[in-house]
Fold this sequence. Notes:
Chain A is α/β, with parallel strands linked by helices. Helix content of chain A is 28%, strand content 22%. Chain B folds into four domains: 1-170, Butyryl-Coa Dehydrogenase, subunit A, domain 1, CATH 1.10.540; 172-278, Beta Barrel (Butyryl-CoA Dehydrogenase, subunit A, domain 2), CATH 2.40.110.10; 288-438, Butyryl-CoA Dehydrogenase, subunit A, domain 3 (Up-down Bundle); 459-563, Acyl-CoA dehydrogenase, C-terminal domain (Four Helix Bundle (Hemerythrin (Met), subunit A), Up-down Bundle), CATH 1.20.120.470. Helices cover 60% and strands 11% of the residues of chain B. Chain B is globular, with a radius of gyration of 24 Å.
Amino acid sequence: MGFNSIVCVKQVPDTANITSDAMTPEGTVNRAALPAIFNPEDLHALETALEIRDRFGGTVTVLTMGLPKAAEVLRSCLYRGADRAILLTDRRAAGSDTLATSYILSQIVRTIGNYDFVFCGRQAIDGDTAQTGPQIAEKLEIPQVTYLEKVIDLKDGTPKTARLRRNTGNGFEIVDVQLPVLVTVIETANDPRPFAARKVMRFKHAAVPAEVTPEKAEELKAKGLLMEQWTLDDVNADLNRCGMAGSPTKVFRIESIVLTKEGFVQIAPTEEGVTGLVQELIADRTL
Amino acid sequence: MGNFYLDNEDIQFYFKTIDVKKLAEIQEDYAENGDADYVPEDLDDAVDNYRRVLEITGQIASDTLAKNAEQVDEEGNTLNDDGTVTLNPKVRENLDTMGAADLMGFTLPRRYGGLNCPTLIYTMATEIVSRGDVSFMNMFGLQGIAETINAFASQEIKDLSLSRFCNGEVTGAMVLTEPDAGSDLQSVRLRADYDEATGQWLLNGVKRFITNGCGEILLTLARSEHEIEDGRGLSLFYSERNEHVKVRHLEHKLGIHGSPTCELVFTNCPAQLIGDRQRGLITYVMALMNGARLGIAAQSLGVAEAAFRLARTYANSRCQFGGPIENLPPVAEMLTDSKVSIEAARSLAYETAAICDQEHNAMRVTETVPDLPKEKAMPLKKLMKSLKRLNAMLTPMSKFYASEMANKVAYDAIQVLGGSGYMKDYAAERYARDARITNIYEGTSQLQVVAAIKGITSGIFQSYVEEFEQRTYDDPELEALKAQLVSAKEKVVQGVDFVKAKSVTYTDLNARRLVEMGCDVIIGHYLLKQAAICDRKKTILKYFLAREMPAIEKNLLQILGGSQLAVDAYMEIVGPVPAAE
């Protein structure tokens, strides 16, 4: 009974606190200079899943892909009440763009199986692409609802369905969707709960095998504190679709763009207005 | 996202410099863990837990409590026609958030779901919570009720209530005050009658000014022995909210609007006796009150910290006469005075909390552990006895000093903001209104002085301070500061000798001056200890002594002056009672 959720979370450099050494001379992000944090919108994705479990029952599984130190974001999911945490760490996944990342994440989701929801934050603050969530849905061949701001109701029937409200920028849209579904969540959806002290006291000792010695891993396992650590092999991934090999995106150059024009221009929703806009965009070669 | 623990270097300074590991050791000694799966692996792990708990508290205080505080103050809570109270939705949110974070069973044993934190950590957390919303401290800070149940009630009552406290499902109230029994609790009249037929107690009467009287669990002081008129006729009773207790009135108060202050009417309310008959006031309530007083000291620190930060920020950004007003010496002095006073009060409150931990744990182990080896029990009992006497002085001192300090700091914060401080646009006026209760409830400052003066006149003060005087410091500057403190102590002793030789009335009249002097000397030694490891604290101590040594001198001169006109010429000075208008 209830609804099983899988939440994709990401450890990201804290781009909100940029210092002068945030970028390397080569124009890439200097990750060492930025503290690693829980991607902010992923916290809202997690909170949505936890609220569904609190209201309707079910489970919350969190997963992340990254270096072993990314286990820290998994621990903070356990501090908030997640039931299960999985880290996929594999050198062969390094350099993945959104296409390869979404492929790998979709393979993790398939391997976990038996899910009603896959939740993602709308986007990560390091790449700001907002592509990974939708691409996971494509690969899983399930519907997607982006920009979630409210779970209105869930029906635990056959089939299971959800009524969700999504933010459309200047309004909202209420959609009914059949489960399983992938949902990306925005920050106005909820207030993420604080850590629960008793869970912190227990799960601060939790670790993935890569963080500890094999003996310690055995000890943790006996106490139920060993988090799962998977490789690409564990999720039956096609290596040609992972890492650099599976990533068609090539970064040509990174520039610092300063927008000079302030405010916005209102275009009348008429034939004339739209034609004018299109011509303007053609003129400045946006189109 | 802020954090009222991580942004407060002084609280963190105490966390690092007070021997928290030692406190963890005595706290974990014979801890009642039940089958809890979050027991620390060792003492370092326990200390790490405390730090993490304070971080969680700091985040909630900043992101939830402080954010809600203005609305809570404006709207308050609502009394319903059926004698129940609906909490403000933001107060409810505060409670739910704290409950979800497992913070409502801070000091209780793990077997009930508590965090088993020492009083010192709870005191720090109480300060942090109070900085977020002073009024919410009256929900968070009422955990002493659960502690009282844990210490004195039957196993049945403990099993019934404690895990619900820990999970944030219930809050409690200590139901003591009556219309004619405020400071003088010995005259409580609410009746408790034993009903032979049902085998339970029934409560009848009225209680007034009950903080969170609409809470789910009530500990009520009532007269069970109708033939005994003083405190020995009173017992303490446990009851849960039911239709036999109604809230008749919600007080309209100057401040702490988020805290519902209730008038309660008991009509044949079934209740269970806590512990033994006749020990209600003299044992249980006294124990509860001492803890509560330390809580108010922490609440005072929190509101003072909030007011100071607001004033400092304003003084830095407000420009007049060509620059920020904090460049003007009189403004600068209000801010330095405030900061030094906060740190002084914090040293007293936190050191007292650490001593409370030693006393409580010695008591817990000696009273609850069966078959405790004699070689362990004897020294613990001896320690407990001496600490009890010391705490009977330090706890009222902490409450007195911190609450008076908070009022001064909040008052000066308005002054720093000037006209803006008087307006509702800033929180300064709220802090001043909220601070005003701290030197009134849980015993007025005048009553704290009555409690603390005993320690000063009986020699406890002197022997405690002389232990500190034995310490030697490599730095000659610190030795010179110590010499000032030694002379200050001699002035206290001189004052004590003088009042004792004169009369009891004269002692009562000057008790406040002596307690102020005593607080200064004790705080001076705490700061001296800190100055030996931290240069900034040396500056704080220098400032403190430059300000307080003349104050000690003034107090002594006034005592030695021998004037008793406040008593002897009372009628002549105050004149007739003003005619009713």
